[in-house]
Design goal:
Length: about 220
C-alpha cells in the first residue's frame, strides 16, 4: 500500500526533524520544506494527500503555499501551524482555506491526531446529489451551481456533502465534528461555525441562498 504523502512546511529545523522522524515512523511519506519556494516546488512535483504548513516561514507565508495547493489540489486537507493564539488569526487561517490549525507549542501526538482526523473522510455514495441548481459530486469532490464550479475547500465540501445527504435533518455540531473532521472529541473551538459561515458566503456568491439553516442550540440542516 502506498504511503500517504505529507507536504510539511516548517523552518525550525529542530521542530521539523522531530515531527518528520515521528511521522515517518508512523508510515507517512514526509516531504519537508523550510521556505515557500521549496514548498511550492514540491507541489509542482508531487500530488500530496495532506499538507501541514507553518505560517511564519522564509520567502513569504504558509498562506502562499496554501493558495497554490488549493489551485492545484482543491480537496487536499490542510493543517496550519501557528504561533499566534489570537482568535482573529485562527479565523483568518480558516477563511484562507485551511481545514484545521494548531497553536504552538503542541505535542506530536496532537499533530498526529489532527492529521489522522483530516484524512478520515469516508464517502458512502458516489452518485451526485442535486438540490435545485446545485450539484454535489462526491466522486470528484466538486460542487457546481448551474454548471459552474463552486470554489470550496476540502472541509467545506465535506460539510456540504454530509448535510446534503440528510435533507431536513438537524445535525449537531458534535456530529459534524465526528463525521466531517473525524474528531472523537470536541476540540473546544468554533471551527464548525466558521466553516458553515464561509460555506454560506461561497454558496451565496454562486447564487445559492439560504441553503444551510441554523437551529439555535441544535445545529444545522439543509433544506
Amino acid at each position: 500500500m502506498e504511503s500517504v504523502k505529507i507536504l510539511f512546511l516548517e523552518d525550525d529545523l529542530q521542530t521539523a526533524e522531530a515531527i518528520r522522524s515521528a511521522l515517518t515512523r508512523e508510515g507517512f511519506a514526509v516531504f519537508h520544506a523550510t521556505d515557500v519556494a521549496s514548498a511550492t516546488a514540491l507541489v509542482d512535483q508531487y500530488v500530496f494527500d495532506i499538507a501541514v504548513l507553518d505560517l511564519m516561514v522564509p520567502g513569504g507565508s504558509g498562506f502562499d503555499v496554501l493558495a497554490k495547493l488549493r489551485a492545484q489540489i482543491p480537496g487536499i486537507p490542510v493543517l496550519l501551524l501557528t504561533a499566534r493564539d489570537e482568535v482573529e488569526d485562527r479565523v483568518h487561517g480558516l477563511d484562507q482555506g485551511a481545514d484545521d490549525y494548531l497553536v504552538k507549542p503542541f505535542a506530536f501526538v496532537e499533530v498526529l491526531a489532527r492529521i489522522r482526523a483530516l484524512l478520515r473522510r469516508p464517502i458512502q455514495r458516489v452518485e451526485p446529489i442535486r438540490i435545485g441548481p446545485l450539484e454535489i459530486d462526491p466522486l470528484r469532490r466538486v460542487a457546481r451551481a448551474d454548471g459552474r464550479k463552486v470554489d470550496l475547500s476540502g472541509t467545506e465540501f465535506g460539510l456540504l456533502y454530509y448535510l446534503s445527504q440528510r435533507p431536513g435533518q438537524v445535525i449537531s455540531r458534535r456530529d459534524l465534528l465526528e463525521h466531517v473532521w473525524g474528531y472523537r472529541f470536541h476540540p473546544g473551538t468554533n471551527v464548525v461555525d466558521v466553516h458553515v459561515n464561509r460555506l454560506r458566503r461561497k454558496l451565496e456568491a454562486a447564487g445559492i441562498s439560504d441553503l444551510v439553516k441554523t437551529v439555535r442550540g441544535g445545529g444545522y440542516f439543509v433544506d
